[in-house]
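Researcher: Let's do a round of design. I'm pasting the structure tokens now; please hold your answer until I've finished.
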């Protein structure tokens, strides 16, 4: 028999039981005697029948899967967040669908609709900008939503790092190293994380009236825009060129480092450089990058745990109070900002 044509009916006929009994063996084995379960399993193995998970979900009205939406899966930061989400969900017997919005609002909305149609158990998302109507629609349909890499959405449970404090730490570090002409490189500014990191840098500057902060906006948080900004900075006259740069993430910082080296600028002797996220590549760069560290896997694990709790409360019909968790960033100084004495 062609394996693709095998159905539950075929299994029932071979095992000498009803279709309902086969369904119980697959979905509620405790309702079937051991002897009957064994007979049905023999038929399943002989025919090579694979139960349809989609059909099972439609009957049950819910899935064993959770959706995860991040806005840049190519960024190792989100890879680590996803690993944390997976670790926590697998311990609960749940699986995860990982999706990338690619920093495009219309794609983020499409992914949310897709998860709704597939009746996922819940959704974890790192939103591009403010929470949109589609995310609110998920919750109205009984699908819990938790925000990750975000810590100020009062309408949802959320977990993130205090990026304002992280930006302040980065700028204060550069100022403490004696720099007074600083630049902030990052974008787009519609990303809350970028905006908050820049805000923190500006707060640090308030305590140093003799210092200046140049802002260079990038279209994305990637290596190539960082390289382009390095070329732009390198072309500035010596007397006006920033002596230190704070990049909104490590990918930008790696691009900046490449661009400065290509332009003949020495890091940190001619220009200091600090990034954000402290991804593994930061410490492994040709000049190890100073960075502001975020507990990446811990963010994912905490978001997943919060979602599991909210799912349980929703299914029990109890009240739920949204929790907003804000973790502390940590400065990690390395060679890219530390001039040898």
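Researcher: That's everything. Go ahead.
Model: Designed sequence:
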């Amino acid at each position: 028999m062609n394996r693709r044509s095998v159905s539950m009916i075929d299994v029932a006929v071979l095992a000498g039981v009803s279709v309902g009994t086969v369904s119980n063996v697959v979905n509620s084995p405790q309702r079937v005697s051991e002897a009957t379960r064994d007979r049905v399993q023999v038929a399943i193995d002989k025919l090579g029948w694979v139960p349809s998970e989609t059909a099972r979900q439609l009957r049950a009205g819910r899935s064993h899967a959770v959706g995860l939406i991040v806005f840049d899966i190519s960024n190792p930061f989100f890879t680590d967040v996803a690993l944390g989400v997976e670790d926590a969900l697998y311990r609960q017997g749940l699986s995860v669908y990982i999706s990338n919005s690619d920093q495009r609002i219309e794609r983020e909305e499409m992914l949310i609709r897709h998860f709704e149609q597939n009746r996922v158990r819940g959704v974890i998302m790192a939103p591009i900008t403010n929470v949109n109507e589609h995310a609110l629609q998920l919750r109205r349909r009984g699908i819990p939503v938790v925000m990750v890499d975000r810590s100020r959405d009062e309408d949802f449970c959320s977990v993130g790092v205090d990026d304002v404090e992280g930006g302040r730490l980065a700028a204060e570090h550069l100022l403490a190293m004696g720099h007074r002409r600083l630049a902030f490189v990052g974008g787009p500014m519609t990303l809350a994380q970028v905006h908050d990191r820049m805000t923190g840098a500006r707060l640090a500057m308030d305590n140093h009236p003799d210092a200046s902060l140049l802002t260079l906006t990038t279209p994305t948080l990637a290596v190539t825009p960082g390289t382009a900004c390095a070329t732009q900075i390198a072309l500035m006259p010596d007397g006006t060129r920033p002596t230190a740069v704070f990049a909104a993430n490590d990918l930008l910082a790696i691009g900046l480092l490449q661009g400065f080296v290509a332009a003949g600028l020495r890091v940190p002797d001619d220009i200091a450089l600090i990034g954000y996220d402290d991804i593994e590549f930061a410490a492994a760069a040709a000049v190890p990058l100073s960075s502001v560290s975020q507990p990446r896997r811990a963010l994912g694990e905490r978001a997943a745990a919060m979602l599991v709790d909210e799912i349980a409360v929703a299914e029990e019909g109890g009240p739920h109070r949204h929790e907003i968790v804000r973790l502390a960033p940590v400065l990690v100084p390395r060679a890219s900002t530390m001039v040898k004495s």
